[in-house]
Design a protein that fits this description.
about 55% helix; 2 helices; about 0% strand
Length: about 100
Amino acid sequence: MQKMDCFRACRLSNRMAMGGTAGAVIGCGLGSLALVSRALWGVLAVGGFGVLLAGLAIGYRFTVCPHCGAPLYDFPRMPSEIPAYCPSCGKKIDPPADH
């Protein structure tokens, strides 16, 4: 398993947040129509919210400067991409070689 760097964490966090939001919205929206079963759509909505929260937790935990450990986001807003330089220490943030 690869080490969780700030680039990978940002990418994973953004994907989980988008997927979780989509699941929660679809589950809540279609659950109100009750076409199939409210319980089935409720499970989708709860699962979507869970994935959304897990993505945000990964982002808040691992989207930090590799040099000084300062966060690379303005709470509560997560970045869509990692900045070139750390806003705290000013050092250059290079992506890993396998990127």
